[in-house]
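Hi, here's the filled form for the chain we discussed.

Project: internal
Contact: R.S.
Residues: 287
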Amino acid sequence: MDALADGGKLPGAFFAPASSSFADFLASYRPDLLPSRRFEGLQGMTIDAPHGTTIVAVTHSSGVVMAGDRRATMGNVIAQRDMEKVFQADEYSCVGIAGSAGIAIELVRLFQVQLEHYEKIEGTTLSLDGKANQLSLLIRGNLAMAMQGLAVVPLFAGYDLDADNGDRGGRIFSYDVTGGRYEEHSFHSVGSGSVFARGALKKLYRDDFAEQDAVLACIHALYDAADDDSATGGPDLTRRIFPVVTSVTADGFRKLTEDEVAQVTQRVVDERMTSPGGPIAPMGGAS
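And the returned structure, exactly as it came back:
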């Protein structure tokens, strides 16, 4: 609406030749709208803002599954019980957030627009590596805020349409606060409960996972993270608050319905009633 304030016409900036990067356009036209500019001038101040916690991702024979718990914390207080932390990035990718919730959600929205803007300008979609690199640049732009404690550490995953027939299409990328990008293999986790979730996935993961196996492993991993990390929320059966679970395959992005996730979660909870530590990984070479 601000852009149309001058006689109902778009400013010249909207018609000037530019790159396919929406973030670059925003930085030149309205830099105050960038997530990294929201808290300028607050150096030295402590901001007690809600933080998102644990996200897990697991590859399988048809793609990749990403899931996140629903709790946001602010110090020792539960700020929100049903926060969504896993989002669709585009048709063949998803992104999960950990860290300062407000900035993370704004960064995800900017990332979504960035991918759509590139497609409209260039007439083609970015490769999965290209999408991962774009997210890296956005995180690097938030470094000043990260140094003040407002860090964003996302997890990115998607289906690689350019993968060879012999390769699994699902790929996972992790990041650090400086924008460093790292490709992970098989599974990964970020957030305060990531150590416990990753430990669970080490015991559960198999190369022959189908999608339903990956979903089950993700729910088990989040359950273990909630068991040992107070900032990670476990399933809340009374309020019907379950993890957000998404899947990306050659058919595109899909968010599992609440009923689908509830069934898997109930199975995990029932198993934990008799085996609180979760499923036991088989020992190789047993006679």
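Let me know if anything looks off before we file it.
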